[in-house]
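Researcher: Can you fold this with zinc ion in place?
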Amino acid sequence: MGIRSWVACSVVVVSSGLLAADDRGEGAVEAVATSPGVTVIAAATRTRPWVHPTVPSDVAAKLGAAIDLASDRVARFPACADLFSSLGADATRTLESVLYLPAAPENEAEACRHILAHTFVGDSRTWVCSRIKEVTDSQAAMVVIHEALHHAGLSERGRDRRAMTSARINEMVSVRCRL
Ligand SMILES: [Zn+2]
């Protein structure tokens, strides 16, 4: 369905000074919280993922719905949570440790015509295309889980020829998490 992400792609320019990602999650959250000039939106519960304030509000609203749905799925369906545990990660903790950032303008103009989000393997940051606001909550939740699996260490075809394709990962998430 055209949802894919690249991993470890040099096209992505990291916002300078934002954070040094710690793929274990907690360190990254701490790094963000203490970085000068960077503010984060902390939701009602302290364990919510971080949506950067530069993410447009309508995109943030869709992300919020997607994160809630994704969290519900990993909590309710063991087969969904097992996607993470098979990588040695805890599903809920991994979802909670993601930092969502807006896709860079150059990616919005090009890559985002074909993808909805991207990240790097092991990276707690997920860059989100504004187009995600146009898909269903279920599709957006699939993106959230797909990218979180990369955070947990799942690689993807392209860099890793033995890995699953992006479409295959989506299919797996769809089946296991009933999305
Ligand atoms: Zn991917």
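Model: Folded with zinc ion in place. The two ends are 13 Å apart (CA to CA).
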